[in-house]
Amino acid sequence: LPARRRHPMRSALPWVTAALVVVLDRVTKMLVVDHLTVGSWTPVVPGLALTRVHNTGIAFSLFSDGSWLSRVLLHAVILTAVVLIAWMARRHGHHRLLAGFAFGLILGGAAGNLIDRVLYGWVIDFLHLWLRLGDRTWSWPDFNVADAAITVGAILLILNELLAGRGQPSHAPDPS
């Protein structure tokens, strides 16, 4: 069988998507730095507010109270993850458009937050979601464009795998 050629648009999709996510992430974070003070709170619509938080940890502020050594290790792990995601995007991102887009979202989000960590030692988070029902309020941890891109990308990768498996024959052993 002849080797399948990569379609140029499919090959470029993860990288173009990642670049757009990084640019959008940087622009929004610079707007936040220019217009909001740390700890500020500006309601936008019910359930959404703009704030400014410096997150020294990872997702949901995990490991934010760590020592300098844990932060160095965290940076190394994140850099390794960015390299691994780039490798996966290069290797698998051209197979399906959805996968290429998903890898680009994840790569761009990881790179966007890594840029913050290198520049400042923390990540700038600025979106706050909450839901109030009666006398109860549920609040989501603060996040940013990069975090949203990573989350959406991960969901799309799962969806891509589910869709890819639907048309594939089962690899179950023959009972005879």
Keywords:
4-stranded antiparallel sheet, 4 strands, 176 residues, 56% helix, single chain, globular, alpha+beta
What is the number of strand segments?
4
Estimate the helix proportion, in percent.
55-70%
Any idea what the shape is?
Answer: globular
Question: From the alpha-carbon coordinates, what is the Rg to the nearest angstrom?
Answer: 19 Å
Low-pLDDT ranges: none
- Give, in spatial order, the strands making up the sheet with the most strands: 1-2-3-4
Q: What features would you describe in this structure?
A:
The protein has 176 residues and is an alpha+beta fold. The chain has helices at residues 8-35, 68-92, 97-120, 145-166, and strands spanning 41-45, 48-55, 123-133, 136-139. It has a four-stranded antiparallel β-sheet. A hairpin with a 2-residue loop joins strand 1 (41-45) and strand 2. The radius of gyration is 19 Å and the shape is globular. The mean pLDDT is 82.
